[in-house]
Amino acid sequence: MEIAPWVWGVTIAVLLGVILIDFIIIARRPHEPSMREAAIWISVYVSLAIVFGIGLSLTTEGQAVDFFTGWIVEYSMSMDNLFVFILILGSFAVPREHRQRVLLVGIALALVFRGLFIAVGAAAVNAFAGVFYLFGAFLLFTAWKLVSGGGDDDEEYKENAAVRLVRRVLPTTDTYHDAKLVARVDGKRVVTPMLLVMIAVGLTDILFALDSIPAIFGITQEPYLVFTANAFALMGLRQLYFLIGGLLDKLVYLSHGLAVILGFIGVKLILHAVHETTELHVPEIPTTVSLVVIVLTLAITAAASLVKSRRDAAAAQKAAAESAEPTGPASDGGDDRGGRVSV
């Protein structure tokens, strides 16, 4: 797939333009978006991704399926990011009206660094096909970690090394000054929590890229498709936070579903590496099969999670009702001198 430089330029310019418009809207009226507003924005970003995929289907051969598969993988893995984002924003006590700004800046930083990761990954893939062994093994290890530790979610956010370094090197304050990154307190310039939380969100998403970039290279090795799939998934992440943030606790099997997807792609990468580096005749998994497996896994994960959540809620409600029932001694029909009424 040959991508002309001007196509890269136009794509990046459009993506930056959308992010800029988004940022201007937020800066003019800081607020926490309603469910309706978040749903509208997500539908816009999803529509843009679908239009982009349709454009690929009209101008290329077979690349649209690769893009949609990679986009779905990135979007599903982004949902796992939201758990951590909720912990970070809660730990820093970010005012609700400024959370959009924090997420947008963090995501923009992540997009820049992911672009660098993709460039390095593409160069490694082109130089040595054996790198797919490393990618595949890493995804299998990550899948095992998700399964073995999937039920042990952290209840509080622990600051990463970069945030701790900023606190040590620069004077900081725990008080927000609207959306300012730096403020003057008692005649001294200090870093506000707004800057710290932006650093935390951006670096956390970069760490998530260590899983997602190898995963999407298991779908396609075209840098243009890898970048655009990441970009469209990240651009809708902020609105997804406000739309389903309260529903994430109900997706109790999300980590297991992601483990299945990462494990499947890890096996696919290893098979591809064997095919490229040896004379062994091993089957390769087509992208269409990958798309079906990923969509079915996500659908089953969501359905099973919702069923379990409803059963747990019903059980909790039943237990609460039973504990509220009177437990006094049974009446034998005589006087109830304690004031109790026999039923």
Summary tags:
343 residues; TerC family protein; disordered C terminus; two-stranded antiparallel sheet
Number of strands: 2
Query: Helical content, roughly?
Result: over 70%
Major sheet: size, sense and barrel closure? 2 strands, antiparallel
Q: Give the termini separation.
A: 80 Å
What is the strand content? under 5%
How many helices in DSSP terms? 11
Rg (C-alpha, Å): 25 Å
Q: Identify low-pLDDT runs.
A: 331-343
Main sheet: strand order: 1-2
Short description:
Residues 318-343 are annotated as: Disordered. The chain has 343 residues and is an all-alpha fold. It has helices at 5-28, 35-59, 63-91, 99-127, 131-149, 161-169, 193-217, 223-235, 237-244, 254-277, 287-324, and strands spanning 182-185, 188-191.
Q: How would you describe this structure to a colleague?
A:
It is a single chain. The protein has eleven helices and two strands. The chain has 343 residues and is mainly alpha-helical. A two-stranded antiparallel ribbon has the order 1-2. Helix 2 packs across helix 9. The longest helix is centred in the last third of the chain and has 38 residues. It is globular and about 70 Å long.
